[in-house]
Structure formats: C-alpha cells, structure tokens
Amino acid sequence: MDRYTDETAWVSFEERTLERPDCVIHYWIRAEGSGPWAVLLHGTGADHRMFTAQLPALEGRRAVAIDARGHGASRQESGRYSFGLAVDDIVAALDAEGIAGAAIIGQSAGGNFAQEIALRYPGRAIGLVVIDSAYNLQRLSRIDAFLLRLGGPLAALYPWRSLVRASAVASAETADARAYIERSFLDMGRRAFIRAFSALGSCISDGGGRSIGLPILLVVGSKDGLGNILKFAPSWPVLEPDCRLELLDGAGHCSNMDRPESFNRLLSAFLERMEAVGAGRVGRG
Questions:
Q1: The pLDDT value given to residue 202
Q2: Residue 139 Cα distances to 3, 145, 213, angstroms
Q3: pLDDT in tens, 229-253
Q4: How far is CA 77 from its chain centroid?
Q5: What is the reported pLDDT for 77?
Q6: Were both Cys, which of 4, 64, 106, 131 would link to 180 (CB 3.0–4.6 Å)?
Q7: Are 34 and 61 in contact (CB under 8 A)?
Q8: Contact, 248 vs 222, CB < 8 A?
Q9: pLDDT value at position 161?
Q10: What confidence score (pLDDT) does residue 152 get?
Q11: CB atoms < 10 A from the CB of 12, how many?
Q12: Which stretches of the chain score pLDDT less than 50?
C-alpha cells in the first residue's frame, strides 16, 4: 500500500455529500483546528487523494478537500458538465459549511478553479496556492489558443490506456505519483476525463489588465512540460503584485506529489502568513 491508497491518512476528515444538478458532490472536511480554512482542489483526472502527502503540513488546521464533479467519488454518469458548473459546485460546498475567507490550494485544473473563485466571488478567498496551473487571465497567442481548443478532440483520438500511461508519464517524475495518476484516470473513465479536459480551456481569457489581486504562492515543477505553464510562470509576479514564484527542482506537473517535503514547507509558510495577518478570522469559527 502506498500513501495514495492508504485511506487511514484521512481518518481525521469526515466525508460529506452535497446534492447538485446532475451530480452528488463528495468532500472531506476537518472542522477542528486553527488558522484560515485550507481548501484543496485537485487536477483533472485526479481526486482529493492527490493531496495525501500534504496532510502533515495541514495538521492542526481546518481543511476541506473536494472531489470535483465527474471525479473520484463525485461520479457523474450523465447530465450537464462545464467548467463554470464545477466552480459553482465548489462554492456551494463551501456555502454549505459556512466557509469564507479561505486559503484555496489548487493543482492544475484545481488552480484554475481557485483563480475563478477568487475572480467571481470576492472575499471567498484570502490567498491562493496555485500548483502547476495556467494563468486564467493570460493573453494567449493564436497558436496557444488553437492548441488549447484542440486538446480535448486530440485526446479523444488516443486509445484510452495509451492516453492514461502517457498522461502519467507527462504529469509526474516519481513512481508513486505516476501509479496514482494511472489508477485515478482509469477509475474516472474515458468519457468523463475527455469531457472535463475539453471544458478546461474555457477558463482562459485575456484579462484586459485585470488581476486577481490576492496573495499568491505559485509553485511549478522545473520539469513541467504541459502546455505553456513553465514558460509563462515568470510572468505571474509581473501581472500579480503579491505573487511569489517557486520552482521545485526535478518535479513535474504534479510538483506537490513529486517533491512533497519541499512543497509542504512552502505551503506551511504561506498558511502561517495568512494566519499572521488575521485573515483566518473570516468565516465559520
């Protein structure tokens, strides 16, 4: 058994559900603890367990980890799916628990969800930890925009198991992270994955000079080869006045999984900063 199949790691969290249009959302919550709420949002094809290695950094803190629509336990066999609807699911779960003023931590698509929540729901987030994710407000070149639109249709042409294996190799450098990614993709299934992956491109649009305007910790693996994430990363601190960029040497697209100890030190320091400025006083006590 590896860390990503060890369910006892989440024993301090309670699994809860929320009825949403065409889907029941599952999430894991620990309401006891100090400091700001930590909200954990996984990437496409994954589920809450991708943050198992971050649990030591969250010890003693209030936290919630959400399986997005169509992922993990939040299975969706039919009905509507869109990026916006998945964002609304997350906000509805936070509303159900009375959580506001949270530090939102998102990997890949989870980072896009986190940014969208900050942009659409002012006050919901006090800070973001964005892991190997594209910037929602970036101006794409014509070729980047074309490739973004083409991603879903191209992925649909691949034999499913070949796509899963290739995705695992492209996403992580460590054996345990790759094994987890393969399992979670296969568990999710081809149709659900392609639908979620195809919808992701709608979150990227030219911000026209807007910024998220929150404290942001951007963590990117030095070997992240997906899209233009690594190439664009140095632009974040230029566009966001309170953004700190950290590159994790030797890590891939799932840098929190490839280099958990290094990532956890950065995460702990960021959460301590949020607590120090008193932002954690907002929300459910």
A1: 83
A2: 38, 9, 17
A3: 999 999 999 999 999 999 999 999 9
A4: 22
A5: 85
A6: 4
A7: yes
A8: yes
A9: 94
A10: 61
A11: 15
A12: 279-285
C-alpha span between 133 and 54 (Å, rounded): 18
Quickly tell me which residue has 């959302």 as its tokens.
Answer: 25
Residue 181: partners with Cβ closer than 8 Å, 6 or more residues away = 45, 46, 164, 167, 168, 171, 172, 254
Tell me what pLDDT residue 143 has: 61
Q: What does the alpha-carbon distance between residue 86 and residue 68 come to, in Å, rounded to a whole number?
A: 6
Q: Report the distance separating Cα 170 and Cα 121, nearest Å.
A: 33
Q: How far apart are CA 118 and CA 104, in angstroms?
A: 9
Domains and CATH numbers, the chain: 7-278 (3.40.50.1820)
Contacts of 187 (CB under 8 A, 6+ apart): 72
Concatenate the DSSP letters of all residues of 225-283 into one string. Answer: -STTHHHHGGGHHHHSTTEEEEEETT--SSHHHHSHHHHHHHHHHHHHHHHHTTGGGSS
Look at residue 207 in the predicted model and tell me its pLDDT: 74
User: CA 214, 218, 220 angle in degrees (round to 5)?
Assistant: 165
Type of residue found at 272: E
Look at residue 243 in the predicted model and tell me its pLDDT: 98
The tokens describing 230, both together, are 């690594």
Bridge partners of 248?
221
The 10s digit of each residue's pLDDT in 248-269 is 999 999 999 999 999 999 999 9
Strand partners, 28: 15, 65
Between CA 280 and CA 278 the distance in angstroms is 5
